[in-house]
Amino acid sequence: MRLPFVPTDGLCRKCGRDAVGLDGEYLCDDCRQHRPHFDRAASVFRFEGEARELVNAFKFREKLYLRDDLVDFLEAAVRARFRVDEIACVMPIPSTLTHRLLRGYNQCAILAQALAKRLGKPYRPLLRRVGHPEKQGGLDEAARRENVIDTFAVPRCVLARGVTKPHSSFSTSPVLVLDDIMTTGSTLSEAARTLKAAGVETVWTVSLARSIRL
Length: 214
Fold this sequence. Notes:
Number of strands: 8
CATH topology: Rossmann fold
CATH architecture: 3-Layer(aba) Sandwich
Strand order of the largest sheet: 3-8-7-4
Number of helices: 9
């Protein structure tokens, strides 16, 4: 199996988009224009070929035995892109109620729990879904960004524990948010915006696959 891994060099310093022929880091046009709320992002694969089949098998077809292999890849991407010792906690993008009922599981939560254990970090689901956004698939970039506005919230129990308040480790150190597929980055950006509004200072993100719309 030949998997299309995202390279570790020549990446946008914000969203992790790779540019052929570039060394070091740069700032891509999308990040200049739309200014995502997350501070830094990493992805494992391009969402194409056998990587697409692998991710979709885990996400839609209950091939949960793939978890450990996928976490191997996620751990490698995180260690290549971030300073792991600085990470406060690992959390997933929460799924919608519809998706939980249809699939019976949140694939991002399964991966985030395993990744947190692998990195020796706390697992903290700091967000929940609110509202009823449309499915992101099939929407253009502008519609995707509009669709996710105000679709996340920090639960009262999290606020009550003070884990996003100033001077707590979860506010002053980066929170790592895990998603399965990153396309425009609008979902991860909105999640980061919500976390920062609640007091988190820095949000890093990691995704299994990156779908680049050219």
